[in-house]
Amino acid sequence: MPKHLRDKRFPQAQPDDRQGTTRTPPPELTAASSTTRFRQGNIGENGRKIPNDSNRWKPYSIASQNLGVNRDHSSFRDQLETPRAKAALDGLAKQTVQTVDAPQLTDAEVKYLSKIKDIRYDLKKGQRTELFHGPTLSIWADSTFVGHVPLQLAFAASTLVREEYSKNNSLKDLTIRGFNTKMAKVALEWLRSNIGKDRPQVFKRSENMEHDLETILAFQGLGMQIYVQPMVNAWYAEIKRRMPDFEWMQIIEKLAPSDEWGMFHGAAARLAHLQFYDKIQDGPAYEAFMSQNPQWVAAIKPIYEKLLTQARDGGDRAQRDLKDKKLTHKEQKDIRRKEKVDLEEAYEQLLLSRIALVKAAGRAGELHGR
Question: Which region ranges are annotated with the description Disordered (predicted)?
Answer without folding.
Answer: 1-58
